[in-house]
Amino acid sequence: QGRCYLVATPIGNLEDITYRAIRILQEVDIVACEDTRNTVKLLNHYDIKAKLMSFHQHNEQMRSDYFCELIKEGKKIAIVSDAGMPGISDPGTTMVQKCIQNEIIVEVIPGPSAAISALVISGLDTSDFYFAGFLSMNKKRRKEQFEGLRFLESTIILYEAPHKIRNTLLDIKENLGEKNIAIAREMTKIHEEIFRGSISRAIDHFQQKNPRGEFVIVIEGHKKTISEELEWENISIEEHLAYYL
Ligand code: SAM
């Protein structure tokens, strides 16, 4: 019976792949990938000979329909992205939705994702987190996003491109105030670096205009002040003081 597999692939170190992922990539009829040059490196490393087809943000809709037809004919298709988990700031979601509509079986082959890796290594609270992906470059939309994040008590996870990291850090400071953050750079690769400290220190640290590599920014959630707590509980300062005095 045909089916679709969402296969997680390494975010840097090629060893970070599961036995099951390797078996599935060997067995499927088609490996749908973002950039064939990238996926070929992984497949060659494990001596996997697979038929590759491109599957990226510009052809995701059309290709998803096409793949669903193939799966209905009994084919098995694996979806991979350039790194990490497909569907997380990467193509994949449309395919899953179309599979559901078409009553096609979808299986996930779990593995690394930069967001979760950065969160756990950040040292910040992992019990409640919010993944915001890449912030919009549209000024108005970006402002709205920051407004949504401002009083969020969850730890926030952001993806960012290297040439935008400095600007984004400046924006975080301006919109969210001084906070503790962690910046996970080049995780699992030779130049892995985890910065932990205040936003101001991070701005100093990444002074270089074009810091190289890949980055995830993890930001401490908002800590409610006493007056916010009271407002939240709908208690006036007088009532609060009367209780404690
Ligand atoms: N689907 C991927 C996942 O599950 O992590 C994310 C794809 S998204 C297009 C790429 C972004 O992920 C990068 O811009 C960076 O923010 C983050 N990223 C990917 N690999 C990374 C790594 N090794 N170290 C730090 N960040 C990484």
Automatic annotation (TrEMBL):
GO molecular function terms listed in the Swiss-Prot or TrEMBL record: rRNA (cytosine-2'-O-)-methyltransferase activity
Electron transport keyword on record: no
Residue span, Tetrapyrrole methylase domain: 4-200
SUPFAM superfamilies registered for this protein in UniProt: Tetrapyrrole methylase
Cellular location(s): Cytoplasm
GO CC field: cytoplasm
EC number: 2.1.1.198
CDD domains: RsmI
Reactions performed catalytically: cytidine(1402) in 16S rRNA + S-adenosyl-L-methionine = 2'-O-methylcytidine(1402) in 16S rRNA + S-adenosyl-L-homocysteine + H(+)
Its biological purpose: Catalyzes the 2'-O-methylation of the ribose of cytidine 1402 (C1402) in 16S rRNA.
Protein name: Ribosomal RNA small subunit methyltransferase I
Annotated organism of origin: Alkalibaculum sporogenes
